[in-house]
Fold each of these.
Amino acid sequence: MAQHRAPSKHAGTWIVITVLLAAALIGTLWVPFYNHLTPVLGGFPFFYWYQLMWVPVVAILAGVAYLLSRLAQRGNGANGQSLDKDRREVS
Amino acid sequence: MSGDAVALTIVIIMFVVVTLVGFAAARWRQAEDRLHLNEWGLGGRGFGIFITWFLLGGDIYTAYTFIAVPALVYGVGALGFFAVPYTIVVFPIVFVFAPRLWSVSRVHGYITPADFVRGRYGSHGLALAVAVTGILATMPYIALQLVGIQAVLTVLGVHGDWPLIIAFAVLAGYTFVSGLRAPALIAFIKDILIYVMIIVAIVYIPERLGGWSHIFSVAGTHLAQTNPKTGKPFGSLTVGPTAVWAYSSLALGSALALFMYPHAVTGVLASRRRYAIRFNTAILPAYTLMLGFVALLGYMALAAPGVPQAVKANGANAQLAVPFLFQKMFPPWFAGIAYSAIVIGALVPAAIMSIAAANLFTRNIYKEYFNPDATPAQETRVAQTVSLLVKLGALIFVLALSKTFSINLQLLGGIWILQTFPAIVIGLYTRWFHRWALLAGWAVAMIYGTLTAYSTPAPGVPGSHFGGSTANVPVFNHTVYIALTALVINLVVAAVLTGVFRLAKLSAGVDETLPGHYHADPPGLRRPRVPITRLTVGSPDPDPDSRPPVRHGR
């Protein structure tokens, strides 16, 4: 992800975030994972409860990714300085 | 008084209340100018986490959710459920790119996606293409809202086009007078009604119908019947082997497209702080969960005694499935409330979308090409007029296109708007693509997408046009959402021409952004309320006052 301020000591954090978010994409977009009726849960065929289950899961994944991104940004004080310099140049 | 009369009376009362609120909104927090893009449209760019949630969620809850998605589930089964993965994957995507767009827009005072494209590529032509696409793609999306209102009216026994035209004229009236403040105020009523309606529907209806497993089993039996038009089953409870790619490409294509729409970009840029956007991707899925259950109203309609018969008797219009379901299941007074939720849930987004499109026109076309020295009053008048024209355009879409599945209206908009993805989202990361190559890729993809959609017949109606949103891709030999195929063509053309244009040493234009601008996180701006006109100054050397001040240091 290009979100980090390279070179960042938080590259690892951003890799974790990428993996978390990519999991949500693959888990919901790869139809063969869930394109069947069984096992049934609470009257819902698998196809339906699997996808509905992903909704809270993606919320949790995004929540963790959010916390990690805040940590990574907070730890990047030094880079923040250089950003301010960028901004001054255009002002 | 018959049940329908009670329900209709409630809908009319709610409509009148909403209309009064809409006109009264003109006086709400009245400031210097009538059309306050910055006060509400970007909320002075001062919205916190909660209001951002509310705004972005509102972009998901429209007639698309209540009418179009359940109609598709009712008509073809599992394929219609693609709206769930769509509204799941949209959040990781937003998590990644939206903060960059927010930052660079904050630094440079961009309000529309076209503003960013012009600043990034120094290209007026590319910015114009993005603006025109935004306006065009919004129209079928608004048209979908109209179809939703029409479905409710039909079930209530109100026939003909005139009630729809009256409803729209009233909407146009208070949008014209009150600007964005009207839908902002009405949105509170809308959300309360919608939450009440959905929670009651997903608890009460399955109870009356004998539980979820009964609903799924009856729906499965219905879907397995042969469709006399096509000679094949209507659908099934899982995605058929030929539709697997259609399912995931519709989900991914729609997710990539959603935040290219002008009204959705507005919601992102209105956030006060950068982190509020990412935090929201963790709480917005609450809307998705609701959407998932609303989609299943399509199956409840199949399982509810009398509903499939009523739909069939009305020209087999699947859009009527949910309104008929409410009619048969709810007592009339609550049906009236549920109908009001659908109608108001369609009016609010229609207003927001038409205003976003009007702002795009005023800022990126009128001011840019027709009247660079426009006075504030002129700009406001142009925006008001264009908001009317956009709604008229939507009416044309409603009258002209196949309504077998109104979701195709939204998907048609997606085909167009997704073609601005390379210029906007890829532009947030790299300037590798040449501006004219992007323009050429966009043009080729727009033509391809439109022609392919035009030549797609409605199922069982050979020779009809704009009847579907998926088409077979030669060579690959799978059915895929046309928007994604067009996007691939778009990227290939842009990549090849970038190479050519570089060899030819064509000017790449001036980039007014710097790498740091994409991470900038100035603290919340408490700006004085300024009329829209201060923000619409968008010439290459903007009035310094029109830029939001960037605070230094932290």
Note: Chain B touches chain A through 52 residues (CB under 8 Å).
Amino acid sequence: MKSKISKYFKRLFIFGIVTTMALVLVPGCSRPDDHAGTEENYITVKGSDTMVHLVSSWAEDFMKRDPNIEVSVTGGGSGTGIAALINLTTDICAASRKIKNDEEMLAVQKDIHPKEIIVASDGIAVVVNPENPISELTIEQLGKIFTGEYTRWSEMGGSDKQIVVLSRESSSGTYSFFQEMVLKKQDYTTKAKLLPATSAIIQSASSDKLAIGYVGLGYALAAKDKVKIISVKIDDKSSSVMPSGQTVKSGQYPISRPLYLYLNSEKEEKVKKFIDFCLSDEGQLIVTETGYVAIK
Amino acid sequence: MKNTWKEKAVKLMLLSAASTSILIVIGIFVFLGKEGGTFVIKPGLKELLGSRWMPVSFQKESFGILPLVTGSVLVTVLATLLTIPFGISASVYISELARPTEREILKPFIEILAGIPSVVIGFLGLILLVPLIKAGFRLSTGLTALAGAILLALMAIPTVISISEDAIRSVPVSYKQASLALGASKMQTVWKVTVPAALPGIIAAIMLGMGRVIGETMAVMMVTGNAAILTASPFESVRTMTATIAAEMGEVAFGSNHYRALFCVGIVLLLATFGINIVAQKVLQKHRVR
């Protein structure tokens, strides 16, 4: 009797192991590579974390108007998005920076020709603590602060205290853009504190009297009562400009950048409707609503 | 005949299940080596041993991992120094002095502390601890190695408490009885007999706690300021290896020097945790043999 039971259990056990293995292995084997890019009515967008909010707002409205097409949006960073575009695992890549030469070469090697479309622009606001007496700076002064040439606030007429430089992580598109535009391609000071997110910069600037950092315009305006936004002067002679939707659009505010969508030019047909929607009046209204600056 | 065949089959299956973890570890090493190894050939090992980490630059990209290594070491050492007194006294209290009801209350709370996600701890650190450190030490900013170390200690303490508590409990009762019979007080017995007898276990517990600390990412990334400076001061910003990988992997161009440098950082990190774990296991083994 006892041996029968144990035999039964043994069989059950083997059966269990075999089924588990089958369950684990079979889906792994049978699944074809990646569906993205093959189905007609399924569009994937991957890329910049800065743009996720914007692109998913577009996707939501787009799907409301055209329920037959499904748009799926994921972040991961501009680099990840461009890599995915090259590997054909996404239809559209959202990027807060231009494609790099290396990446373009890699794409051409694989016979893929990314097409670049500017869909919105984004101002970068410089923020300090509300108690900081300084309210305007020139691009040159900003450059000297972030490269570490200026280390004390007194060098710009503030109090004789050390400057605490806050920056985004080097992986951020904003980091490279600010480096190119404001630091004139020089390196950031190694003393700069690299914070992982925009919210961390806002949080630190609001609690730290000596801090200075940069964030996307939308975030800065949303946190207006926690941090002070600096007016920026192009040089000593010009008048200072506060960043806003208007001044970014008109080009008066100097620190602004375009936001891109990249697509595979061979498969343009499939995603055309979505791109057209992004560039339409409605799409551009969403740009403004989500805190970015419309291009039209 | 049939039975032995079946038994062999089952045995084989069990063996393969058990050895999966070995395969995975080897696989990870091979993968990391494959992705990062070529860095040693092309830009060269010298580049990697530099003291400047500036991976995104229009001038010259530098991939010196020295500041990252010292950053990780500084935070880990500080966290361990904070963990040791706290972890040992708590485990002594719970295993030797606490009444059963106290233990019933204390243990679940320690387990809950172990289960708090590190992002949550990091967030609390950023909001509460960082301003406190800034005010307390009159610094220009609270985003320092010390802030990271305190949070990491918070995460390592539960591990250290539960493992060293185990070690203290497994000290034979006869040791304590002998000590008490010789006229030693309860406190004397605890500190002069029980704890020394359990020491190898306690050391292993601390090592395992260190393993957790060095691999922790999110909380450190949020509060240490992440400036890649070569420093030994707890009041400076540091950039740890884990934070570097986490922060930079997302946007790096695949196959670039930067990408491969990050894999090299991963290899160093893996070797460090590997080493710590091996030492901890050795110490634990010694303890068991006795």
Note: The longest helix of chain B spans residues 2-48.
Amino acid sequence: MNPEQLLYAESHEWVHVDENNGEKIATIGISAHAVEALTDLVYMDLPGVGTAVAAGEPFGEVESVKATSELYSPVDGEVTEVNSTLPDNLEILGTDPYVEGWIVKVKLSSEDALGKLLDHGAYEKMCSGS
Amino acid sequence: MTTKMIEHETLEQLMQHDDFIRRHIGPSNSEIEEMLSTVGAASLEDLIKTTVPASIELGQPLDLPEPSSEPETLKQLAEFAKKNQVFRSFIGMGYYGTHVPSVILRNVLENPGWYTAYTPYQAEISQGRLESLLNFQQMIMDLTSMEMANASLLDEATAAAEAMTLCKRAGKQPSNLFFVADDVHPQTLDVLRTRAEYFGFKIVVGPPSEIASHDLFGALLQYPGTYGQVEDLSDVIETAHEQKALVAVSTDLLSLALLKPPGEMGADIVVGSAQRFGVPMGYGGPHAAFFATRDAYKRSAPGRIIGVSRDARGKTALRMAMQTREQHIRRDKATSNICTAQALLANMAGLFAVYHGPEGIRNIAKRVHRMTSILATGLGKLGFPINQTAFFDTVSVTTENAPEIVERARQQRCNLRYSDAGTLGISLDETTTEQDVELLWEVISGQAAPFTVLQLDAEADMSANQFPPALERTSDYLQHEVFNKFHSETEMLRYLKRLENRDFSLTHGMIPLGSCTMKLNATTEMVPVTWSEFADIHPFAPPEQTSGYDAMIKQLENWLVEITGYDGISMQPNSGAQGEYAGLLAIRRYHQSRGESHRDVCLIPSSAHGTNPATASMMGLKVVVIKTDENGNIDMEDLVARADEHAEQLSSLMITYPSTHGVFEETIQEACQIIHDRGGQVYLDGANMNALVGLTTPGLIGSDVSHLNLHKTFCIPHGGGGPGMGPIGVKKHLVPFLPNHVLRHDNELPPGGAVSAAPYGSAAILPISWAYIHMMGEAGLKKATQVAILNANYIAARLKGNFDVLYKGRNDRVAHECIVDIRPIRDACGIDEKDIAKRLMDYGFHAPTMSWPVPGTIMIEPTESESKYELDRFCDALLQIREEIRQVENGELTADESLPRNAPHTMYEIADTDWSYRGETEQGDGEPQADERRKYSRHAAVFPSHSTRQSKFWPSVNRIDDVYGDRNFVCNCPPLSAYEDDLDS
């Protein structure tokens, strides 16, 4: 996925929405900026398939040698798929956060939250400003 | 011209009552003069006037005793000790007699090499106690049969409270009901009730069989029960699991040598106290509690966990694992605020197991059980049948003569448990003798028994267990080599010394950790701790036997009242974090009493220690962060704005003074006033009290409550990561809301509401603080504070031009510590605060505090106890390291080629024939390539200074890889060969 075509939450998750058989599926990950800020990752806790998620609410946790951070869902819906190879291969997030490093896929129950997300330009601006 | 002085000292002067002041304070008077001129102050008074705001200066000296000499002080403490009466204790309830092996007593508990070390954050110079703490974890895992254990908690009751929160967090059940078995120790229940209230949990107490009738998120069971009954818990645990609730079991470590362990009954969490493994009762503490759980919950486990990793050259090395779980990162999302552990006591308990080994521990357990079986049989014959159908070391009898029997026992200098009407509890232990059992028969029946212990033992088969075969332990424990190798005293002694030699302590040099106050722990202060009259007292012994302790504690409380400017003190909290908890609890209860329980907003500056928001979160308070300005001070405009915004809900402000940035803020009184005007209370964190004593008081500044870290300001040693003591002081209006205790209460306060298992926390270490204040007196304490501030300013002055001090107050003064900014260096050449910290080890120093409270900095707190010689040695080292960094800045070396980046250097490494940057693992692959050869000499690596050439402390491993260890988490003991030499194996 091209990072320039993704949407971003202020809490540093990225979203890409696909349409599949009339259902909208959001793929969610965390940005390269977030991975860099967290430094060396050591642990990731992910939800099970079927878990309901809500925009702005935590759905998982990521831990580095320096910090523990919650992963916040940028969208409303239900988890349909989880990248289960990720917790044992966290280095993927460092090398390829936007393709191999996807975290969960969520079937959207509403698209309301998408409007609040930032485009790449706005996100980059936010990161450089902070 | 020289003048010959004719000296006419008075006899009073010759007595040298104030001699200890010059022993405690590092710089001599002439050195103080020199240092004052370096910092540009005319006198100590002048230094203080230009540093501390005039508005908070004390108007008159503190009303404290005159200084006393060391012999006088020991004599006074002996007077207190004499008033304590050491009775044989059969009270039990989690506290038992034990024989501290002499080799451990003298070489660990009474040895400054062990007790003056800090928490092992700098792992490369802490491998000894890290190995020992790992042994403790392995012992706990073995005996409880659980998958992981932490490196100790404060006491059994708070460990149970931590278990309750883990049940909620890990179990993810919507219910708010926590079930507590009715045979849990009463002090544990007391602490659980306190803790549950502000988490919003409902505690239900009942027999375990009722567990099915509740919708619960978790349960706590006790095994064996508080009166000794042993039951198989498997069915109860299964019932709870069917409801998706988690089950914690509070247990007795010694009993698990014979009994089926809770881990084999399905327990999710197992907690308890390791006290009876060779740690004296000490009127309540300090002791190490343990916390064991399943691997699945390891990342939710509270406290410090030691884990295995590897160093830069691939060698097995230990360090504290998963540090990000600590509250200073989680802040307001925390469900625990635990920091300090009980490292010294955990080490003693682990070493007790190393000393005895599995057979020795089993033998002790069998002897205790046999004695109890004989006691019970005898009681039956005498017409006093016991209440238990299965037991290990504790039984009870119910009789209408109970009060009379308790009295008779006291005549014979024995204490029985007596609380419920008519029921007497009797717990035996490692120290129980045949005569003790015969005496018990006599005091209970009222006459000498017509049989002896030996007769009963011969008469029937007393070797049978007094519990069902299904509850007999069948699994092995303590099979690791470390528990089976050091059973001769010679080997044990050498093992202890080997561990000690790997650890940097105050016996080697300065430990300039900012915010930690690593001052002298004087030998005289330590001596009374192990006197029998202080060490061998049960926390629930009757008050008439503890009048010496109580009088000493009362006097210490009075002195602390004077020193803090408050009106009341509670000695109960066992650590600074627990003090914070007790302090916010008092504020909560105070507001409740005024019908203002809706006040639930706690303001905390962004510069606060992470424990502050963690504690507030545990009290059900909402944390609102106050900004700091570019000088590191509280942004007063933001404070007013937030206080106004939340005026109706304002509970409190938590503030540290001097600030965590090491500055005396001029606006502190104004900040207190802003909060009070809006109905809030001020919590002044006492972590930096070492900059205040004798100059001002929190009370005068305007706060309502503070904790005091007795293990910082008042000389209790850090023990290599605990014990600690965090008593709180409060103003008059908060006195009625101090913690009380269900078993030993101050009658002016309602019973219960405890925050610790024991009424006075860790009473056995209070003589240390008492002795310090007694020896220093008002004059000494004030001078100590002045010199602490002088020493910090002296360091700042000596580093000027080479390192930048990040924050300063009025007149460019710092308080008792200073933050040195490493970010400009890092940005210029890549060398960071970690490189500098590790390089300091090569120079024979412990690093300052790293990256706290500001990332990319080091915070230096020298304390008053460091001499000018040591301060100069430290500054010289830092300045020389600065030159080493310049080689990188100048482009002579890359960062990776530099001395700091490759620090610390080990003896093994410099003896390597292949003196290259690559590790030993590649040795033998031929001559190193030109670019692999070190760009500096072996000599520069390990003997960089004059003092290291005279005497060298060797880090035992190279820099440790934290990432590897956290990704590959292991918290049990690796084989001993792993420590020896990875290449040879």
Note: The interface with chain A takes residues 299, 322-325, 329-330, 333, 962-963, 966-967 of chain B (CB under 8 Å).
Amino acid sequence: MITKGDKILFFCIILLSLIIFAAFQVYGFADGKTYVLIEVNGKLYQKVSLGSDGPNLKIHIPAATGENVVEIDRDSVRMLYAQCPDQDCIRQGWISRPGQIIVCLPNKIVIKVQSDNNSADEVDEVTF
Amino acid sequence: MHEHRKTIFLSLLVSFGIVLHIIENMIPVPFPVPGAKLGLANIISLIAISFYGLKEGLIVSILRCIIGALLAGSLTSLIYSLSGAIMSTIVMAFAYKHFSKVFSLVGISFLGGVTHNFTQVTVASLVLSTFGLYIYLPFLMIVGLFTGLFTGLTAYFVKQNLGTTLIKLGVLREEKIQ
């Protein structure tokens, strides 16, 4: 009752969805410039632009329980060193896409990646 | 075939569709695409198409969407479900009319599901002015495949088991059952 045509269609659709998925991976999510915003205590501390031609630097931030070091490597950013007790921020690893954030709660430091077209003030969720 | 019995049967289909629509609305889909649903109510559209044709399929689908949206309390998702349902009904009716040798009801249901998802994501992207929603299309398509399998099989069994009874009841014409 399930014909051969059905099975071919099934695999074609799976193939098509994989192609679309792959296309998104290659093409990328951000269609603008991306920036790193480092906020300490809720206030903007530093803003650095990312990109494949971006900077390669380390930023030292004096904080409540010691010092945090943020490392930027061209188009990704991570918390390299922190003296907070949990070390959650370090375990986050690298982030590079707009919307991703790393938080060091004890030291009140937030690293976020933002892109040109959608600022952080935009709507996060829409319900119906 | 008696016309008023056909009308009664179509109304029954619409009410089944409404129930499916309401239940569907309660099942959360893990994608933030507005109006993304499992696609269970397509069973009704498929039954209407396979028993009658495009016109009846459209009538049933549109009524199901409108009344279902009113009853489920979610009128804002009407535009997504209506556009998806209309497009998928048209595609399914076309496939049923011309390709019923190539695809069984399961294959036609696959086509309907994929069309529905694609239309939904497109309409949602236009309304929300963002094309990032298309990233969810692959996942929606895969989910649509599996519910399409279920939907198609259900419609097939309905046809197998109810077909002769409906002809005897005067709801269906003789030659509709292959």
Note: The mean pLDDT of chain B is 85.
